[in-house]
Fold:
Amino acid sequence: MPIGAKWYPFKDDNVELAPRQPGVYELGYLDTVVYIGSSKSSIQSRLHEHKKQKRFMKVTHFRYRKTEPDKARVLEMKLCEEFEKKNGKLPRLQKVAPKDHRSASDKYFWG
Structure:
């Protein structure tokens, strides 16, 4: 279930055009995914935050998929799981696998 969207150069002008809506995104270096993230509010603001962080300074591209706010984190977890299953490890700049922060009753009710 890769994002499958077009890659955009990770430049300020392109980040400005990213949606101010919730969703998931991937950061890439050349043709390799190096980070998978999500935002419950604005993909654009999260990308701006990453641009300011030193560890992301070699990122060359990004792509995204808009989602409902409550589905962004779940999709991020699924993308990370698939990446790790396929590659034997998380993306290079991913410090830890994202965790589901919903309560047990929410997980039961919403799946």
